[in-house]
Amino acid sequence: MVAPAQQPAPLVTDIQHRTTISLNGAWHIIPDPYDSGSVLYDGKLNERSFLRNAKPKSKADLIEYNFDTSPTIQVPGDWNTQRSDLLWYEGTIWYERNFTYHPQPGKRVFLYIGAANYLSLAGVNGTVACGHEGGFTPYNCEVTSLLHDGENFAVIRVNNARRKEYVPTLQTDFWNYGGLTRDVKLVELPQQFIQDFLIQLKPHSQDQIAGWVKLSDAAAGRQVTVRIPEAGLEKSVTTDSTGLAQIDLPAPNLKLWSPADPKLYHVEITSPNDKVEDDIGFRTIEVRGHDILLNGQPIFLKGICIHEEAPYRSGRAFSDDDARTLLGWAKELGANYVRLAHYPHNENMVRMADRIGLMVWSEVPVYWTIDWENPATLANAENQMTENITRDRNRAAIVIWSVGNETPILPARTTFMHQMVENVRRNDSTRLVSAALQVHRSEGSIRILDDPLGADLDLLGCNEYIGWYEGTIGDIDNATYKTPYNKPLVMSEFGADAVFGLHGDADTRFTEEYQQNLYEHQTKMLDRITFLRGTSPWILMDFRSPRRPLPGIEDFFNRKGLVSDRGEKKKAFYVLQKWYEGK
């Protein structure tokens, strides 16, 4: 856990449009399985702290580590796929990088870390800057006073060990990639800067922008101006005593964002000392009975699940090119929507979805069995969701915040998840809230989706694997669904494993023909569900999983991808593509 003295600074948003200095590239690493270079969690360094990057003062000094002579790996990137001896490693690795910096008068500097899985502690020039818990959301530390004019060094301790009280917890079905898996940057900002903002359409309105701008200090009476030049819109407002300025701006002639026409407007926000710019789309998303309405019109979510697995090379995806490839396959499939499972994906994925027109289900890793009665676990899960929303709240592509996946029906779990839903609604009222549920009760062939969490959600997600984990492919033909909730259903997962190039008859598991057969039966069954309004089969591309050891078949990969990890399309890809053409 992160000690109070090590808490990160409030998150600075829209990093892609700030003045930054990249610290990506080669970092020296020291694996430390026994945590011999550990740091005292009161914010002070102990004598062996690797954060010091100590050098011998004389030949008699005993210092048992040396970053300068240690190997390097690339940041961003997981350590597992960059070195074969670290493929299965779970524990601490220390990262170190030297850099040159010349402080600018009147500037504040933050160290921004896009993601570090899972527990991390960052220091600059031998002093702790801040720490963070959670492997898929960003954090930043102010380091203005820690920087020297000239040569500097940063050291970051990253530990990906699994613990019962963590989010996710001990068991998952995806690889526990460790390391600094996303961009690391220095961010230069004025003394008083624009911390965060929300510029979106007011819920249920297509011609009224409602949002806010938050400055970095709690000064009242500061003027903030929002401009959308292409739309001829401008509004100036003043901050309250908390540094918050509310925006209410009539926008009668906006062209609305949609998958068919993903229109983005260039938005400028200025304060007395700062200016930020962003490209923002405007759209509404709501439910009415069994319908999902985009910009007031019913829409069927033609989707696919995606893990943050890098195409062709494996490992954690992070780049714009990775996003272009993965989301390009989704578009080729005929998708208008993607479920980014089972954790917040990198910002490039979400911004690419914004640009090319894919709606997004964004999720936090409240996955399977969590320590439901632990207040610290709940606080951690809520913080990960808050950081996810804070980073992405201005992305039109995101239409669903998901609070979890396949969680068991228990009183403590339902209370936990209710609080998660309430946290989402406090942070963002402009999007739908869902979760991937499961059927726990059947009456013959009627599958009843009556999870009590469904009462809290805007739409129901459901994962089902008839024909793979449950029954036979023939059982799909008789399956029907019923729910007590008057809400739309998105079948958030279904599928079967297949090895690309492995062929046989349609009843032989792990063949492309079996997967193809299952998809043909599934799509016919889905057509019979009257309240179904979307699907996101499992999954776009094969991905690594420690739960899948079958030699010559899985080889520690989940093979349910419609595309292999080498980019090869399986037969079921074209079944789903044809079905989506008719939806």
Give the structure's gist in a few sentences:
With 583 residues, the chain is of the alpha/beta class.
Question: Describe it for me?
Answer:
α1 links the parallel β23 and β24 (337-340). The protein has an eight-stranded parallel β-barrel with strand order 23-24-25-26-27-30-32-33, surrounded by four helices. A six-stranded antiparallel β-sheet has the order 3-2-4-10-7-8, with no helix packed on it. The protein has 583 residues and is an alpha/beta fold. The longest helix is centred in the middle third of the chain and has 18 residues, at 375-392. The two termini are 47 Å apart.
Secondary structure blueprint with pairings:
Elements: E1 19-22, E2 25-32, E3 72-75, E4 92-101, E5 107-113, E6 116-117, E7 119-124, E8 127-133, E9 139-142, E10 150-159, E11 179-180, E12 184-190, E13 194-201, E14 208-215, E15 223-228, E16 233-238, E17 244-250, E18 265-270, E19 275-280, E20 285-288, E21 291-294, E22 297-298, E23 301-306, H1 320-333, E24 337-340, H2 347-356, E25 359-363, H3 375-392, E26 398-405, H4 411-427, E27 432-437, E28 441-443, E29 446-448, E30 460-463, H5 473-476, E31 480-482, E32 489-493, H6 512-527, E33 532-535, E34 543-544, E35 557-558, H7 571-581
Parallel strand pairs: 23-24, 23-33, 24-25, 25-26, 26-27, 27-30, 29-31, 30-32, 32-33
Antiparallel strand pairs: 1-12, 2-3, 2-4, 4-10, 5-9, 5-12, 6-11, 7-8, 7-10, 13-14, 14-17, 15-16, 15-18, 18-19, 20-21, 21-22, 28-29, 34-35
